[in-house]
Specification:
single chain, mainly alpha, 1 helix, 89% helix, 0% strand, coiled coil
Length: 89
């Protein structure tokens, strides 16, 4: 084998090794990106769950406010019918 052929073979071997290393790095980066994406998705799912919980709490409060308002109106009408003075605070 001539020196030129030996150099070409060494360069080819180096290029092959560099390609293997690059593939390994790309796979590691892809794996890390996938792990990160899964973690972020879990956080998003948790936030969605929290939002759903707070929406339900708001609905409960709105219902309670509406019921209290209706009860207040009934009481006001009852007091008015009975000629009782009704004062709101």
């Amino acid at each position: 084998m001539t020196i030129k052929e030996e150099i070409k073979a060494a360069v080819k071997k180096f290029e092959d090794q560099a390609e293997i290393i690059a593939k390994g790095q790309n796979e590691a980066q892809a794996s890390n990106a996938l792990i990160s994406a899964k973690k972020h998705q879990e956080e998003v799912d948790e936030y969605k769950s929290d939002i759903d919980y707070y929406k339900r709490q708001i609905e409960i409060l709105e219902t309670s406010i509406r019921e209290n308002k209706e009860e207040k109106e009934k009481l006001f009408l009852t007091c008015k019918i009975n000629n009782t003075t009704f004062t709101t605070l």
